[in-house]
Amino acid sequence: MVATALRIDPGSAVAPYEQIRTQIAALAAAGHLAAGARLPTVRQLADELGLAVNTVARAYRELEQAGLVQTRGRHGTFVTHRAAGVPAEAEALAAQYAARIRELGIDPARALALARAALGISE
């Protein structure tokens, strides 16, 4: 989803890493990338965009320094609640809900339906 949403303008005066950085930040701020969303690996995104690995790595580093993404070693790079404009407590509660739903053996579609009903959202 991320790679298809990103557009790199090779003729732009703005460096490609900066184009990636600003677009990912904007996608998160607009809610198109939720808190906790996993970004493609550096290598994956570089391949999809036709860029050098170091270009994407620099964009990710700058996003991480700004607190907009968090790299969790081999697990990947994830959008933070700060980038998505979601309170940390809401993110923690969602994680607790997901963990408890898995413990109960409820499938994801049913869990989402339960959450929508609790929020008063009709399908």
UniProtKB/TrEMBL annotation:
The keyword DNA-binding applies. Keywords: DNA-binding, Transcription, Transcription regulation. Residues 14-82 form the HTH gntR-type domain. GO terms for molecular function: DNA binding; DNA-binding transcription factor activity. The keyword Ubl conjugation does not apply. InterPro entries: Tscrpt_reg_HTH_GntR, WH-like_DNA-bd_sf, WH_DNA-bd_sf. SMART domains: HTH_GNTR (SM00345). It holds the Pfam family GntR. This is Transcriptional regulator, GntR family. It comes from Micromonospora pattaloongensis.
